Amino acid sequence: MVGNNTKNRSPLLPDRHPIQDFFICDVTDAIPKDDMGSMEHPIFSLATKPDLAVREYEHNGTKISVVPSTLGLATIHDKDILIYCISQLIAKMKIGVAPSRTLHIKAHDLLVSTNRNIDGRGYEQLIAALERLRGTSIKTNIKTGGIESTSGFGLIDSWNVMRHTDSGRMSEMRVNLSDWVYNAVTRHEVLTLHRDYFRLRKPLERRMYELARKHCGQQDEWAISLDLLRKKCGSASSDKEFRRLVSDICAENAKHNHIPDYAVGLDGANVRFTNRKTMKALPAPETTAFPTLDPETYHDARIVAPGYDVYYLQQEWQNFWVESGKPELKNPDAAFIGFCKSRHKRSPME
Predict the structure, then answer these.
(1) Closest CA to 136 of 190, 76, 185, 62
(2) Which of the residues 55, 100, 264, 277 has the least number of beta carbons within 10 Å of its own beta carbon?
(3) In 10 A of CB 24, how many CB atoms?
């Protein structure tokens, strides 16, 4: 009977609380500039038990290692805390409040917003997640000005409980974000995350959705080889087992459409994500005398940013221009091409 209940249960967790849309920091983009391969590195563990393995990655001369504390690596579910903190910073910035690396947040609000239980166990799990985030450290070599250096940083710098309720549970807490997370927010290196992300049961599903949001975005589709997907997910499974796990997810998603925004299926040795067109388009920039671009510019943009939807990039660029105070553009076409180059360099499509 238990087996039947498990087999027939929804692939999504219950929607425990009504929540709004959130922003997700693309963690690898938040690593210092010029770190070309960092977006491929699986910083968060997919394990459900303490993961004490040191993760090593190398790509095009860039080396990245993620070192756990004695409690293990921060998990993909621990990342919910960063998502919440970043969404708070974004919301404050939109109403003109200067961002700060230090956030004062309500523990109850965080649990509700990330679809977690608000019982005693929920608060205990929150403390453990904060400790793993604080203890996990990242080390990478970066090149600036042609000089290679090595730097290390954590996911959060510190946390502490500011106030308890009468029942002894924490009520208000303070989280100090690391520089690289804070910089990701202030540089607008964020992506919108569907709220059902917090309802996905399987860690691998969460990671696959993140990669689809990162690489497919609002394009029609995106394909990635199983080998590269396994590398990006940081899976410790064998090739055969990983294919089985992905195949099961594809079959379940074909039945339930539970993975937000994308259909996903196996296509030989590739995994293909197809956009369901459920994402909201970027808001149009406010009415302004923004100069039009030469038709040839779109052609050039496709060359410097292969794989991207250039019209979506144009919308991003225009929004960035408005948010930057509408500076005078002596050559809008060159400015747009420069934006596309920078976007591709920071986040090349596979």
Answers:
(1) 76
(2) 277
(3) 21
Angle at the Cα of 19 from the Cα atoms of 17 and 23, rounded to 5 degrees: 140
Q: What token pair was written down for 116?
A: 């977690």
- Closest-CA residue to 235 (of 245, 249, 224, 225): 245
The two tokens of residue 254 are 């074909």
Identify the three-state secondary structure at position 62: strand
> Could you tell me the two tokens for 84?
């919440």
pLDDT in tens, 249-301: 999 999 999 999 999 999 999 999 999 988 766 554 444 566 677 777 887 88
Q: What are the domain boundaries of the chain?
A: 22-193, 295-346
Predicted pLDDT of residue 148: 52
Tokens representing 150 are 């090595």
Sign of the CA dihedral 185, 186, 191, 196?
Answer: positive
319-339 per-position pLDDT tens digit: 778 777 777 788 888 888 988
